[in-house]
Design brief:
Elements (H helix, E strand, L loop, with lengths): L1 H25 L3 E2 L5 H10 L4 E2 L6 H13 L12 H32 L1 H14 L8 H8 L2 H26 L3 H9 L4 H39 L4 H10 L3 H32 L1
Antiparallel strand pairs: 1-2
Length: 279
């Protein structure tokens, strides 16, 4: 097992080095072969070709951005100039609050839907209509109603997180083996105790799968939402650096978004394994 992990790590490192090498070669300055007018005459007199600068930044510039921002990630020089640590903290805070509110609503409601076929049939049309709506489509209504960009971002995270959790919870509860529920009924276990001791442990892997999907969607959406509403957050950081045409900083921020998203996914993946092993 360790040898396979080591081999996979070495292959990943090799692919990364190949990617960096190809990127470096693609962004090397190129000699301009077509000069016109006075520029061509001047180049001929000087005996040298003019360097044509590439528009995309080379790996060295992006690496410098990593060094610059990670050496002091929590600086604060005003509303429009904050460190990447502060920006990520604002984004993670919004995601955490919106995600928590979705858990509070989706898990209990999913339990009820999974245990009641009648309730499932009654609510299914509403779920099927609301689920496909893009979370960002709610942003104008949220801004108009809530009058606060920060609260609107949290609401958008809530609305995009609730559906995978709700559906997976309902599916997991409905899929619990009837034998276990019948035994609990025979032993006259109270409904609340049955929910926590019988249904929840059996449905936990499926519920956590829904949470994992919801967290991935929430992290995607918060970046786009912050680009729209501005203020603070890693999405705003990306948009602000793009407006400044600082592409190395944009690439740095995009990489940080990916690394944080991978970390969040790994946390839920580990929780899934723990729950599955206990099942």
């Amino acid at each position: 097992m360790r040898s396979e992990t080591l081999k996979a790590a070495l292959i990943s490192l090799l692919l990364f080095l190949i990617f960096i090498g190809a990127w470096h070669l693609a962004t090397l300055p190129k000699k301009s072969t077509a000069l016109a007018g006075a520029d061509a005459e001047y180049a001929a007199l000087m005996g040298k070709g003019a360097e044509k600068a590439g528009g995309f930044p080379p790996p060295a510039q992006v690496g410098q951005a990593f060094v610059t921002y990670l050496s002091d990630p929590f600086y604060d020089r005003g509303p429009n100039d904050k460190g990447v640590g502060i920006q990520l903290g604002h984004s993670l805070g919004r995601v955490a609050l919106g995600f928590f509110l979705a858990v509070v609503i989706a898990v209990p409601l999913g339990f009820m839907i999974g245990m009641s076929p009648l309730l499932y049939k009654a609510l299914d049309p509403f779920i099927q209509v609301l689920k496909p709506i893009s979370p960002l489509a709610w942003m104008p209504l949220a801004l108009y109603t809530l009058k606060d960009s920060n609260v609107s971002g949290i609401f958008v995270i809530f609305i995009c997180s609730i559906w995978p959790m709700l559906i997976n919870t309902a599916f997991g509860v409905a899929a619990v083996r009837r034998d276990w529920i019948n035994v609990a009924r025979t032993l006259e276990v109270k409904p609340l105790r049955k929910a926590f001791l019988v249904i929840l442990p059996a449905a936990a892997p499926t519920i956590l799968t829904g949470m994992r999907i919801s967290m991935g969607i929430a992290w995607l959406v918060i970046v786009a939402a912050e680009m729209l509403v501005g203020g603070t957050g890693i999405g705003y950081f990306v948009w602000n650096e793009w407006n400044n045409l600082a592409l190395p900083n944009v690439i740095f921020a995009v990489t940080m978004i990916g690394l944080v998203g991978m970390g969040l996914d790994m946390i839920f993946g580990r929780l899934q394994k723990l729950v599955t092993y206990k099942e």
